[in-house]
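Allow me, if you will, to draw on your knowledge of protein folds for a short while. I have a record of one protein: its chain in single-letter code and its fold written as C-alpha coordinates. Kindly check, if you would, that the fold set down in the C-alpha coordinates agrees with what the sequence suggests. Thank you for your consideration; the sequence and its C-alpha coordinates are set out here:
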Amino acid sequence: MITQKLISLGQELQEIMPFSNGIQTRDQYSEAIKMIDVLVGDAERNDLLINYLFPIIERYEATAPEFKKFNAKIDAMNMGQTVLRILMDHHILNTTHFAEEIGSEISVSLIANGKRQLTTKHINKLSKRFGISPAVFFD
Protein backbone atom coordinates (compact mmCIF):
# COMPACT_ATOMS: atom_id res chain seq x y z
CA MET A 1 0.00 0.00 0.00
CA ILE A 2 2.76 2.46 0.94
CA THR A 3 4.79 1.44 -2.11
CA GLN A 4 1.88 2.21 -4.44
CA LYS A 5 1.43 5.62 -2.86
CA LEU A 6 5.15 6.36 -3.27
CA ILE A 7 5.04 5.27 -6.91
CA SER A 8 2.07 7.54 -7.48
CA LEU A 9 3.78 10.47 -5.78
CA GLY A 10 6.92 9.86 -7.84
CA GLN A 11 4.94 9.90 -11.08
CA GLU A 12 3.16 13.07 -10.02
CA LEU A 13 6.51 14.68 -9.19
CA GLN A 14 7.84 13.83 -12.65
CA GLU A 15 4.78 15.43 -14.26
CA ILE A 16 5.08 18.59 -12.17
CA MET A 17 8.87 18.75 -12.47
CA PRO A 18 9.83 17.39 -15.89
CA PHE A 19 13.51 18.06 -15.20
CA SER A 20 13.54 15.60 -12.29
CA ASN A 21 15.77 13.31 -14.37
CA GLY A 22 18.09 16.15 -15.31
CA ILE A 23 17.92 19.80 -16.27
CA GLN A 24 18.15 20.28 -20.02
CA THR A 25 17.53 24.00 -20.54
CA ARG A 26 18.30 27.36 -18.96
CA ASP A 27 14.56 27.82 -18.26
CA GLN A 28 14.43 24.54 -16.34
CA TYR A 29 17.51 25.62 -14.41
CA SER A 30 15.89 28.94 -13.50
CA GLU A 31 12.76 27.14 -12.36
CA ALA A 32 14.79 24.74 -10.22
CA ILE A 33 16.70 27.62 -8.61
CA LYS A 34 13.42 29.40 -7.80
CA MET A 35 12.09 26.18 -6.26
CA ILE A 36 15.19 25.67 -4.12
CA ASP A 37 14.98 29.29 -2.92
CA VAL A 38 11.43 28.70 -1.71
CA LEU A 39 12.21 25.31 -0.18
CA VAL A 40 15.16 26.54 1.89
CA GLY A 41 12.83 29.06 3.52
CA ASP A 42 11.63 26.13 5.63
CA ALA A 43 14.55 23.75 5.20
CA GLU A 44 13.55 21.41 8.00
CA ARG A 45 10.14 20.64 6.54
CA ASN A 46 11.45 20.55 2.97
CA ASP A 47 14.61 18.53 3.60
CA LEU A 48 13.54 15.61 1.41
CA LEU A 49 12.78 17.83 -1.59
CA ILE A 50 15.94 19.90 -1.12
CA ASN A 51 18.04 16.73 -1.01
CA TYR A 52 16.28 15.51 -4.16
CA LEU A 53 16.55 18.77 -6.12
CA PHE A 54 20.03 19.92 -5.12
CA PRO A 55 21.98 17.17 -6.97
CA ILE A 56 19.92 17.83 -10.11
CA ILE A 57 20.94 21.50 -10.01
CA GLU A 58 24.51 20.61 -9.13
CA ARG A 59 24.82 18.25 -12.14
CA TYR A 60 23.56 20.95 -14.48
CA GLU A 61 25.95 23.56 -13.07
CA ALA A 62 28.85 21.12 -13.44
CA THR A 63 28.14 20.35 -17.11
CA ALA A 64 26.27 23.29 -18.69
CA PRO A 65 28.31 25.30 -21.21
CA GLU A 66 27.34 28.61 -19.58
CA PHE A 67 29.14 27.53 -16.38
CA LYS A 68 32.28 26.23 -18.10
CA LYS A 69 34.36 29.39 -17.59
CA PHE A 70 33.12 29.84 -14.02
CA ASN A 71 33.85 26.20 -13.14
CA ALA A 72 37.35 26.44 -14.61
CA LYS A 73 38.03 29.52 -12.50
CA ILE A 74 36.76 27.80 -9.35
CA ASP A 75 38.85 24.69 -10.10
CA ALA A 76 41.96 26.88 -10.40
CA MET A 77 41.39 28.44 -6.96
CA ASN A 78 42.82 26.88 -3.83
CA MET A 79 40.35 25.94 -1.10
CA GLY A 80 41.48 28.67 1.32
CA GLN A 81 40.94 31.33 -1.32
CA THR A 82 37.55 29.85 -2.19
CA VAL A 83 36.38 29.74 1.44
CA LEU A 84 37.55 33.31 2.04
CA ARG A 85 35.61 34.53 -1.00
CA ILE A 86 32.50 32.60 0.08
CA LEU A 87 32.70 34.11 3.56
CA MET A 88 33.06 37.56 2.04
CA ASP A 89 30.08 37.05 -0.26
CA HIS A 90 27.86 35.34 2.30
CA HIS A 91 28.45 37.88 5.05
CA ILE A 92 28.63 40.88 2.67
CA LEU A 93 32.16 41.74 3.73
CA ASN A 94 35.06 43.32 1.89
CA THR A 95 38.81 43.33 2.37
CA THR A 96 38.61 45.90 5.19
CA HIS A 97 36.64 43.51 7.44
CA PHE A 98 39.47 41.05 8.12
CA ALA A 99 42.04 43.14 9.98
CA GLU A 100 41.86 40.95 13.12
CA GLU A 101 42.15 37.64 11.27
CA ILE A 102 44.44 38.40 8.33
CA GLY A 103 45.82 41.91 8.61
CA SER A 104 45.93 44.69 6.08
CA GLU A 105 43.44 45.21 3.29
CA ILE A 106 46.27 44.51 0.82
CA SER A 107 47.00 41.13 2.44
CA VAL A 108 43.33 40.14 2.28
CA SER A 109 43.16 41.22 -1.36
CA LEU A 110 46.28 39.22 -2.26
CA ILE A 111 44.84 36.09 -0.61
CA ALA A 112 41.38 36.56 -2.17
CA ASN A 113 43.00 36.91 -5.60
CA GLY A 114 45.21 33.84 -5.18
CA LYS A 115 48.52 35.68 -5.01
CA ARG A 116 49.19 34.64 -1.39
CA GLN A 117 48.08 31.74 0.78
CA LEU A 118 46.26 31.78 4.10
CA THR A 119 48.53 30.86 6.99
CA THR A 120 47.61 28.47 9.79
CA LYS A 121 47.17 31.49 12.05
CA HIS A 122 44.74 33.10 9.57
CA ILE A 123 42.76 29.88 9.25
CA ASN A 124 42.45 29.42 13.01
CA LYS A 125 41.26 33.00 13.50
CA LEU A 126 38.77 32.80 10.61
CA SER A 127 37.46 29.47 11.92
CA LYS A 128 36.82 30.95 15.35
CA ARG A 129 35.18 34.10 13.99
CA PHE A 130 32.79 32.28 11.66
CA GLY A 131 32.27 29.14 13.74
CA ILE A 132 33.55 26.76 11.05
CA SER A 133 36.03 23.92 11.10
CA PRO A 134 39.57 24.71 9.95
CA ALA A 135 39.28 21.64 7.71
CA VAL A 136 37.03 23.53 5.26
CA PHE A 137 40.04 25.59 4.19
CA PHE A 138 41.85 22.55 2.80
CA ASP A 139 41.32 20.48 -0.37
About this structure: The two ends are 46 Å apart (CA to CA).
